[in-house]
Write a structure and sequence with these properties.
The structure is a homodimer. Helix content of chain A is about 40%, strand content about 20%. Chain A is α/β, with parallel strands linked by helices and about 325 residues long. Chain A folds into two domains: about 200 residues, NAD(P)-binding Rossmann-like Domain (Rossmann fold), CATH 3.40.50; about 100 residues, Alpha-Beta Complex (UDP-galactose 4-epimerase, domain 1), CATH 3.90.25.
Chain lengths: ~325, ~325
């Protein structure tokens, strides 16, 4: 089994690589070859006994996509992409990387004439307000960002290439990944993770929105689980509608804080400081609050049961079980 | 007012050109310039007093899109495209013309730095079975053809360019155009028009499906009306969801035949011969039967009230009011 991961140097890419190495197999087959690419060269995952190729490559550059699949990987996890904020500020780069890069990859698969499994990470940014109380699987895609537009277009391409038998595709719409490890960043969504991560690390965190704001979250651990589960689904299980909203925990910011308090105590939860920011509040108000994700749940995708579990996953996976007092 | 029509040599393009020349104005402004392009040079519409440019051009060819909008048309009717059957049999041509050609046009508008109205003809082929009894405006797009995929992608692009203020876009999803004038063709949908057109012209027509098959139709006259109405809608009226399912007459094949009999008599209706074709039956079973088109109706788009009116429109517009006995 040869696995290719694009965007392998990113947070999810690294966790997916580590998990595949730990599992040693995918869909019951031994992984003997890993190709990891990203715009910066990914590190070799520790403990992998097979052949690992690591390369710095932008799929939208001439020849890069062909090179990426030259070894005919059996499973392609296509995670590479410019993030939401950058796709909005740099129109050309967003379309080039997120749309042209993905299309180049699909076209090279077609040219290579074999039929890999392609797991594509889409996003709930494909949806755009106004929303019903909970977004059904049949709800339209009317993205309100260029990032969401590019993800929706790639979903359509993937479905058409899948329908034509060029590849076996599955697109998974990830909810907000929380708790995202690492440094605070300037993404509008950053506070959803920040208000959990910083207090657990002994730092103060700013909360720019009201506690009534509702959003849907899944842990990095669940996101990796979605990817691996998606790779194992058959064409028969998926049917023609191969792009799926993933499950997650829908909760308010207030419920996030309650969960943090239950898991880590009052002292930790007290490190959150209210600091309203109208711009962030306005951006967040256009985001999906809750999704049914019925098809994904029926197909066996599993997220955390509640936000307490998301907090615990972060403490276990990122903090070695230790909370800063 | 300078109007550009792409795909101007096609059936709808010619009727739109003729209507604009007859009206002499669009959105209350005198039309003094018409640019008509298609892969074959369109004919100059008779009776136009202004400046007409006619050119044979494929928007997906290098430089063609820039040339098409060099005169900065105020309103662009983008009708050009490879039809459904050809997009399915020629993968590369379909994506090149329907996707890359449209994207080139949008990109050249962006480069030109002005903000035209762009009216894009999409199709109900953006929907894919299984369907609810009637398709709501919020229903997802899961096309089952490459043509439908390309139309859905262009809708997403148009909405993003509109959202960013690059242009004023509106996409209209046309139902099946019936009665399509001209010769019978091999399109799977051809019989919907054929069973009306041929009997009215004194010819026998074959009916390949059961009379219980339901479908949605609008006359060529209505389609032209949709285009002109769309050009007059403001950004405020449309909001961010600029792609709209158009209204039409939803009826069964049996009801089509009943309408023909009411309008043209038993002798004409008797020229339809049942000739079941399993392939056509299977293709048609994947098509949308009925659409709410509530937003479009609320925005003032008007189709015929019933299939009798569609038959009458054909007799008036194509047959000079005369039915073959």
């Amino acid at each position: 089994m040869h696995v290719l991961i694009t965007g392998a140097a990113g947070m999810i890419g690294r966790k997916l690589s580590a998990r595949l190495v730990k599992d040693g197999q995918l869909n019951g087959q031994k992984i003997d070859r890993l190709t990891l690419i990203d715009v910066v060269a990914p590190e070799k995952p520790t403990g992998f006994g097979g052949a690992a190729e690591l390369s710095a490559s932008d799929l939208s550059s001439p020849g890069a996509a062909a090179k990426a699949i030259a070894g005919k990987p059996d499973v392609i996890f296509h995670l590479a992409g410019v993030v939401s904020g950058e796709a909005e500020t740099d129109f050309d780069k967003g379309y080039r990387v997120n749309l042209d890069g993905t299309r180049a990859l699909l076209e090279e698969v077609r040219a290579a004439g074999y039929k890999p499994k392609v797991v594509f990470t889409s996003s709930i940014a494909v949806y755009g307000a106004p929303f019903p109380a909970s977004i059904a699987d049949e709800f339209q895609l009317t993205p309100l960002t260029s990032y969401g537009t590019q993800k929706a277009i790639c979903e359509l391409l993937l479905a058409d290439y899948n329908r034509r038998g060029i590849l076996e595709g599955v697109g998974i719409r990830l909810p907000t990944i929380c708790v995202r490890p690492g440094k605070p960043n300037n993404a509008a969504s950053g506070f959803f993770s920040g208000i959990i991560r910083e207090p657990l690390a002994g730092q103060e965190a700013l909360l720019p929105v009201s506690e009534s704001v509702r959003h849907t979250h899944a842990s990095p651990r669940s996101a990796v689980g979605f990817l691996i589960h998606a790779a194992g689904l058959t064409r028969e299980q998926l049917g023609p509608r191969i792009n799926l909203a993933m499950p997650g925990v829908s909760c308010t910011v207030g419920e996030q804080i309650d969960a943090l308090r239950r898991v880590a105590g009052d002292k930790v939860a007290a490190r959150i400081r209210r600091h309203p920011d109208e711009l962030v509040q306005r951006i967040v108000s256009g985001w999906a609050e809750r999704l049914d994700a019925k098809r994904a749940r029926d197909l066996g995708f599993k997220a955390e049961a509640n936000f307490d579990d998301i907090v615990r996953a972060h403490i276990e996976d990122e903090l070695g079980g230790k909370i800063a007092n």
